[in-house]
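Predict structure. Chain length: 227.
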Amino acid sequence: MKYLKILEGIFIERPNRFIAYVNVEGQEVICHVKNTGRCKELLVPGTVVYVEDHGTDTNRKTRYSLIAVKKGERMINMDSQVPNAVAADWLVNKSNFKNITYMKREQKYGDSRFDIYFEYDGKKAFMEVKGVTLETDSVVRFPDAPTERGVKHIKELMKAVDEGYEAYILFVIQMSNVKYFEPNYETHKEFGDTLKIAKKQGVNIIAMECEVTPESIDITKEVKVIL
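Prediction complete.
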């Protein structure tokens, strides 16, 4: 996936979940933060960030959106809206799922709405996609904040397996060159414990890292999952 017009800036502050102040070309501008997670380890004053310039689109409250951040030498995409799009592209064009005959984004099932429903080789499957931006010493974890919604999705996927569907949780790691993925038990133990149970009951857990530039993000290769 490619963004249209990306500018480099310096992060100043984030007064709330939705906006940040960034110095772009010597001017302080307000940016929409396309990630409501905490991201405290990423959004540090003085850090190099990348913003998308939407121009003078009158339908927007802010002209800029914060897309990516430089953490040391590592480029991390922090756009929480992009994992679903790159996952759908990967599923159809690059994954090992062959003969996909149907795919739909945002499919309702039970009390949840899963990110992707698809059919292949006569099988019916649901896939829930989670974007991962939390990294320490090249180990990536999810979530970066407690997520009761995430636990609910895992439980619904287990129900889908019981009813004959295939079920997948795809962790899209929004960076490259990581060692492995693991649940963030310290932040939300229930999420990690539920993920373990789900795997035993037939839910497939996949983690894929991405090649990230300021202007683009694309899924590249699978990463080891340690539960």
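Summary: The CA atoms of residues 112 and 149 lie 9 Å apart.
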